[in-house]
Every structure is written in structure tokens, then in C-alpha cells.
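Continuing from yesterday's entry. The apo prediction looked reasonable, so today I'm repeating it with copper (II) ion included to see how the binding region is handled. Same sequence as before; SMILES copied from the compound registry.
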Amino acid sequence: MKRKLPYLSILPVILLAGVTMSVLASLASPVSAAGNPVVVTMTDKPARYVPEKITVKVGTTVEFRNTGQVVHDVTTDASIAQDKADVSLPPGAEPFDSGFLAPGQSWSYTFTVPGRYLYACIPHEKDRMVGEVLVTK
Ligand SMILES: [Cu+2]
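Holo prediction written out below.
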């Protein structure tokens, strides 16, 4: 009878692991309520933002994470984009630029003005490394 006790004692640990994993899965969702973290990863082959398009509530902070082996960036600044049509801002929003992000680096931006943002990676703009954030009220 006593041999069964060790199995029963690890049951709460298994249940807790399951809850933790479901919480982590919900954090990865591209659509988020205000205040919840949203992550866009930057990859090399192909050079892309993943996901390429997200919708978030105003006030949401989006983390751009370079998971590749080369430098990437995130910019809405038309003065440095090769094609000005690749970047766009809603009225009243200021352009932003992360600067070059080394492999493993992250950069976060909080979207305080609702509307449609088109952004690009300067080193890979020609490879169509472009993304979109739709910020809803
Ligand atoms: Cu890039």
C-alpha cells in the first residue's frame, strides 16, 4: 500500500505543470488585451517578422525579439526606409526605430495611438521583411 504514495505525491506537480504550460501558450497569442505582452520574432531564412501581422489593443507593449543569427531592426521611419510605401503611421503617431538588434536582442514598443502601422527591417526590406500592427481602441 505504501508503495503507491510516491505516485500520488507527484500528481499536484503534474497538474501545476499543465496549468503553467497553458498560461504560456496564451501569452504567445498574437491578439492581446491591453497590457499583456505580445512577442514578434525576427527570423533569418527567410528574413521575416513572425507573425507578420498582429492586432493589439491600444496601450499594448509589443516585444520584437531577434531569434536569428544576423542583425534585424524595426522601423516606421520613412526617412530611412528604401521604399516609403513600406512604412506607415496613423495620424498623430511619431515614427520609431529600434536601431540594429543583434542576435538574441529584444526591443519593445508601447502602442499608444490607435491605427495601422507598417514597419520594415532596413537590412532586409528588399527581401520583403515588413510587418503590420493594427492597434484598436
Ligand atoms: Cu531583418
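Comparison notes:
- The radius of gyration is 20 Å.
- The first strand starts at residue 38 and ends at 43.
Will overlay with the apo model tomorrow.
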